[in-house]
């Protein structure tokens, strides 16, 4: 959240220990200090949200693409890696290759729609699945991919919610994002009722 005071703009900061997920009380901090500490981009997103007519910050980020790029790896390619892990886990190891992903990115750039350095959107990842299916005998179903998109788990308790949710046996591609708009994909494989996490 954000509020304007006679001494400047303040932002509501949510404090969290990355090591164990512990949350401290939220506090109001002046924007000048936050921007000096490297949170300029985050403050700008909050500013954009406050002048919009969208009721929640999360919904604003979704509507404006701030949380949709999946690419926390330095190259922004971790969504492709995650898809490769998923296809291996379902016994379709030959379906994915980095060379094929690179070719897809070159073709996107050639059509005037380059893949962002921040990563891919879900729509772009879905296009890549179609691209790769066209070049392979074994296929990945876009219908099942769309059906198994699991969203709406938010807040600092999202990890525990994800652990508690009942998932059918199978392989799931998940993406988690932070308030800094850094998003990273990972794989959940459900075997005999147990969840196993895979990451690149």
Low confidence ranges: none
The main β sheet shows up as: 3 strands, antiparallel
Backbone structural class = alpha+beta
Number of helices: 8
According to DSSP, the number of beta strands is 6
The domain count comes to 2
> How are the strands of the biggest sheet laid out side by side?
1-2-3
Radius of gyration: 19 Å
**Oligomer status:** single chain
Q: What string, H for helix and E for strand, traces the elements in order?
A: EEEHHHHHHHHEEE
Q: What percentage of the residues does DSSP assign to strands (E)?
A: 15-25%
How does this model look, in words?
- The strands form two sheets. Strands 1-2-3 form a three-stranded antiparallel β-sheet. It has a three-stranded antiparallel β-sheet with strand order 4-5-6, with helices on one face.
- The protein folds into two domains: 2-63, no CATH class; 78-198, no CATH class.
- 38% of the residues lie in helices and 18% in strands.
- The relative contact order is 0.13.
- The mean pLDDT is 77.
- The protein is globular and about 65 Å long.
- A hairpin with a 5-residue loop joins strand 4 and strand 5.
- The protein has helices at 31-36, 40-51, 57-63, 78-89, 98-110, 122-134, 142-147, 158-164; strands at residues 2-5, 8-13, 27-30, 170-177, 183-191, 194-198.
- By secondary structure, the chain is of the alpha+beta class.
